[in-house]
């Protein structure tokens, strides 16, 4: 068994198996079109913004929009399906990076069971319910998991490059990741920690300041993607959150000011309930045996190293953020914790197998199959909960509205689900160009009213409150329709 696993050619087989298995599982369960499954109602906004050269909801997500537009050019399936494939790709790559990090860590200590341990960690992460749920829809979190895993890899196990090149790569990766999700800012302290730990005598400032400066400069280069947002806005796209052509609007968009009120908006007495929910979610991801392995990997194998400093910091900072954030989807901010926990699971499995080297090969093989098989088997128990392949609610709602509203109607829409779905059908798919789609909840923003003027040249807008009534009065030749989605489509015209 040891001889087989030490063979360089054989060691390439486990990550291939991991990648192919997850790819098949994800593709089978990926939504074929626009979907609201797995709390993915933002999909219509992201898809449409990417396709029309627009700007998505705060913080704008410029790196995501760039990659999404690339995937949208793939000549397969619907526009929404092609965008969903970005999440599939990112989630598979995340699991493979976790595999590589575990394998490299264990092989550096001459553990020949590293490939099996790495594959266990990859499946533990890739088949966890939350990660799987984000891998099959259009959202930014699958890409963020890939970028987070890549940042951990490049800081924990630097690739063999010259120090200057490595500094540039680290800084650029941090900047690009912040261009996908601003919470990457929590990982920037890794730069300072590892630069200081790399010091070998001498004064810290003189020996390491050049490395910090290089990383900071290249971080700014990655962040420069945010400068594409004002450029996009100048083209007057139909989805143009914030219309960030001024510094005030630009700051409003990229700082996520719209959502800052969600932080720490709960009563102190709710803290214990949120901690219990955190523990319950952790148990849901890995099961009791998986949690036990992860705790063992964290506590029993702990040593002050790059690996553990990075993983503990990542786990703690994102846990605190998720516990303090009161949005409906705050649980997705725990994915970096699950990356760390999956790595600890892999390390615990590798250590356990290594301790049994005096046992028979049959026992070693059985343990390897048992660990990998556990995560594969338990995934069958919740596959239906994360499967988006049969979810057609959003598609049916969009078609129903497009066929149900009157010609040349003013369509006032309420709620993210309804608004983003109609944006997708109306702007991305170019359906019903005769109607005017108005997001009722955004009318109090001056930038949105400007966007409406630029998008619909025939629309007469009034800046008087109440907005809906004043706009309807200013366009008497158009039928007024009101649309929203609760537990069913609600379309009222006349």
Query: How many strand elements?
Result: 4
Counted up, domains total 2
| Uncertain runs | 199-207
Fraction of residues in helices? 55-70%
Radius of gyration: 25 Å
Amino- and carboxy-terminal Cα gap: 75 Å
* Strand neighbour order, sheet with most strands: 2-1-3-4
Mean pLDDT: 90
SSE run: HHHHHHHHHHHHHHHHHHHHEHEHHEE
Number of helices: 23
Largest sheet: 4 strands, mixed
Shape descriptor reads globular
Question: What's a concise summary of this model?
Answer:
The protein is 62% helix and 4% strand. The protein has 494 residues and is mainly alpha-helical.
Descriptive notes:
This protein has 494 residues and is mainly alpha-helical. It is 62% helix and 4% strand. Helix 7 runs parallel beside helix 18. It has two domains: 385 residues, no CATH class; 101 residues, no CATH class. About 2% of the residues have low confidence. The longest helix has 29 residues.
Helix-strand blueprint:
Layout: H1 2-5, H2 8-11, H3 13-29, H4 43-52, H5 62-72, H6 79-107, H7 114-126, H8 129-135, H9 141-156, H10 163-178, H11 189-197, H12 204-223, H13 228-234, H14 247-254, H15 271-299, H16 306-324, H17 335-355, H18 361-379, H19 383-386, H20 393-404, E1 410-414, H21 416-428, E2 436-439, H22 446-455, H23 467-474, E3 480-485, E4 489-493
Parallel strand pairs: 1-2, 1-3
Antiparallel strand pairs: 3-4
From the structure above, extract its key features.
2 domains; 494 residues; mainly alpha; 23 helices
């Amino acid at each position: 068994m040891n001889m087989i696993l030490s063979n360089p050619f054989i060691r390439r087989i486990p990550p291939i198996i991991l990648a192919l298995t997850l790819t098949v599982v994800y593709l089978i369960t990926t939504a074929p079109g626009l979907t609201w499954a797995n709390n993915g109602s933002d999909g219509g906004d992201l898809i449409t913004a990417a396709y029309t050269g627009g700007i998505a909801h705060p913080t704008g997500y410029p790196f995501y929009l760039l990659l999404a537009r690339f995937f949208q050019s793939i000549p397969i399936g619907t526009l929404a399906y092609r965008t969903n494939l970005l999440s599939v790709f990112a989630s598979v790559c995340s699991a493979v990076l976790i595999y590589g990090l575990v394998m490299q860590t264990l092989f550096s200590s001459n553990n020949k069971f590293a490939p099996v341990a790495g594959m266990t960690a990859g499946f533990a992460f890739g088949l966890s319910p939350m990660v799987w749920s984000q891998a099959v829809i259009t959202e930014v979190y699958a890409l963020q998991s890939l970028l987070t895993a890549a940042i951990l890899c490049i800081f924990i196990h630097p690739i063999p490059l010259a120090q200057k090149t490595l500094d540039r790569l680290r800084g650029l990766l941090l900047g690009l990741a912040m261009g996908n999700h601003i919470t990457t800012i929590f990982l920037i302290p890794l730069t300072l920690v590892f630069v200081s730990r790399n010091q070998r005598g001498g004064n810290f400032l003189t020996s390491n300041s050049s490395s910090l400066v290089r990383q900071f400069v290249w971080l700014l280069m990655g962040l420069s993607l945010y400068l594409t947002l004002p450029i996009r806005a100048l083209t007057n796209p139909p989805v143009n959150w914030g219309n960030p052509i001024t510094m005030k609007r630009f700051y409003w968009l990229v700082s996520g000011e719209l959502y800052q009120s969600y932080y720490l908006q709960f009563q102190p007495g709710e803290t214990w309930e949120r901690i219990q929910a955190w523990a319950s979610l952790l148990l849901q991801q890995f099961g009791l045996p998986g949690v036990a392995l992860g705790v063992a990997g964290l506590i029993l194998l702990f040593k002050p190293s790059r690996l553990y400093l990075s993983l503990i910091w990542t786990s703690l900072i994102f846990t605190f953020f998720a516990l303090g954030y009161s949005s409906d989807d705050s649980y997705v901010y725990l994915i970096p914790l699950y990356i760390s926990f999956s790595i600890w699971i892999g390390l615990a499995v590798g250590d356990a197998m290594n301790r049994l080297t005096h046992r028979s090969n049959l026992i070693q093989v059985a343990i390897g199959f048992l660990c990998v098989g556990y995560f594969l088997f338990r995934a069958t128990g919740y596959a239906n909960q994360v499967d988006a392949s049969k979810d057609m609610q959003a598609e049916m709602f969009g078609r129903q509205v497009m066929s149900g509203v009157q010609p040349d109607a003013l369509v006032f829409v309420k709620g993210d689900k309804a608004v983003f779905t109609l944006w997708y059908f109306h702007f991305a798919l170019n359906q019903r160009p005769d109607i005017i789609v108005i997001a009722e909840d955004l009318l109090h923003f001056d930038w949105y009213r400007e966007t409406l003027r630029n998008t619909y040249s025939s629309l007469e807008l009034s800046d008087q409150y109440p907005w809906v009534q004043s706009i309807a009065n200013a366009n008497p030749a158009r039928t007024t329709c009101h649309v929203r989605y609760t537990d069913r489509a609600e379309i009222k015209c006349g």
